[in-house]
Amino acid sequence: MMAGAPTRLVRVGGAALPSRAFALALLLALHACKKGTPPPSLGEPVSVEQPGGSATQLIERGSEIPTSATESFTTLHDGERRIAVHVLRGAGKSAQKLRDEGWWVVDGVSGGHAGQPRVLVTLEVDGQGALSVTAREGDRKLRVAKANDADRSVLAPAPLTEPDEDEDAPDDDDK
Fold first, then answer.
1. Model pTM score
2. Cβ atoms < 10 Å from Cβ of 12
3. Per residue in 61-88, pLDDT tens?
């Protein structure tokens, strides 16, 4: 051994440490560092475009991730069987000024009169900041696909709706 090297070693995990006091101090320091580390958070807000070009923020900047937000959307025209959701990142009220995250198309909407269907769309941000989109209408899960660049030119953003009070509860007719 080298001169001045400790003569007693204590094993902690896979490491040999010079003394019990040092081992305890190291463990306490590691624990304090772990506790003091803030959870990962979202660096920028997540919004959706509304008809007319405005943006509605669904997830705030600094939100602890993973996180999610669910909003109710509807159709623009009678008989529509799909809606489009334009997801944006950044802060602001104008969709043009925000960063395009992509368009998601929700297929299988029940149709009916414009504004009648209620589609609950959930935006989820995982621990790495990646976005995923799911949708349901009542108790039915709907198919969601990210639109390719060719489809984007024909898409119009679906409007948000005010959720019904009993929207999360299944209807008696569905049983």
1. 0.70
2. 13
3. 999 999 999 999 999 999 999 999 999 9
* Residue 171 to residues 105, 109, 166, 167, 175, Cα–Cα distance (Å): 25, 16, 9, 9, 7
Q: How far is CA 98 from CA 58, 78, 86, 136, in A?
A: 14, 30, 11, 27
Region at 76 (left for phi over 0; alpha for psi -120 to 50; beta for the rest):
alpha
Residue by residue, what is the 3-state secondary structure of 119-169? EEEEEEECCCCCEEEEEEECCEEEEEEECCHHHHCCCCCCCECCCCCCCCC
Pair (52, 109) in one structural domain: yes
Q: Which domain holds residue 125?
A: 46-165
Question: Is 86 found in the same domain as 4?
Answer: no
Mean pLDDT of the chain: 82
Contacts of 58 (CB under 8 A, 6+ apart): 46, 47, 48, 69, 71, 123
Name the residue type at position 101: E
What is the structure's pLDDT at 141? 98
18 and 95: one domain? no
97-130 pLDDT, tens digit each: 999 999 999 999 998 999 999 999 999 999 988 9
